[in-house]
């Protein structure tokens, strides 16, 4: 009965969209393709009979269909780059009995002359925008924007929306999250969206400055303030950030003495350079970041409570990568392309085994660790797809069979698969030589290669 209903639904979709020129795709609640019309399949060069059931991100580049199916928020006339060209895409959630059951997407202006002209114009405008963005980066020091935060996680999408709502004001922001979660990207994004975006963005790593130098670094010093002081004095980070944003990274590592002066700067809008007689007015917006529990540090009298309330007007809690596993695949693809472009190596994808390792690994170093792992693998591989044996040793060790809740057959098969992968790598894919090293017949090796999809 279910099969008959499924066939009927497909017939209805094919009747409605099968002969239209626009590209149509329908996904279910999980973002898997339920239907894609022939027009879309021809455009992206895929076989219509093979796409059903695949996750939409594996078939359509730069898609957001899975996000719309998850959030229930429609996206109309959105720019989407497909096969090097920019298209207009509509994405509409599908509802049933008050619940989202999927989404319908439509790509417009796929091949009309008007769109080709418009596409050229858009590319020209985007290049011009990138030029201005690079100029702004050189002027104010902030190089990332909200667009650089790659995610499909509902939690992170909510954080991006929260930033859009608060960035324009001058309230202090506290970014909290584990090391490697991307706190600096969020800080840059806030500055870019603020009214101070044309003014300086100055970063201070509070953990990297020796305690006896931190006041001079933050507030500057006057000529002759101390032995070895630079002639004419030197402005501090507060003076350099005047009119703009001061990003205090790892603020939990700041000495109590410096915390007092920062509190005064926030309360009174003035600072006092080392060796100065008179205070100096400053106008900065504070964005602070920490991976520590400031509440516990307050209890231990290592962080001032009054400063905590001053910097914690808006709090952004960035979730670790292990709690948003849906982002692992998207980020991996993005980072692989970025690293491949930078290194000049043509590495285009990950093997299924690598994708499985990435998904199961707990990523204590979060996105920063993921990027480092991919960069290492790109340098190690000599193929267009990163293989299991290209991964760093600690990741291979972590993902080795635990033998818990596994049958003996599963353990043996996984071990056999890894051994064949290793020898094929060492023999540059020479199956005759690999079979000799493994001590098995060539036909047996071919059977096992096919069995494990190597």
UniProtKB/TrEMBL annotation:
Top-rank taxon: Bacteria
Keywords, ordered alphabetically: ATP-binding, DNA-binding, Nucleotide-binding, Transcription, Transcription regulation
Domain named Sigma-54 factor interaction: residues: 149-379
One Pfam family this sequence matches: HTH_8
Keyword Cell membrane in record: no
Name of this chain's protein: Sigma-54-dependent Fis family transcriptional regulator
GO biological process assignments: regulation of DNA-templated transcription
MF terms in GO: ATP binding; sequence-specific DNA binding
Nucleotide-binding recorded as keyword: yes
PANTHER family for the chain: C4-DICARBOXYLATE TRANSPORT TRANSCRIPTIONAL REGULATORY PROTEIN DCTD (PTHR32071:SF57), TRANSCRIPTIONAL REGULATORY PROTEIN (PTHR32071)
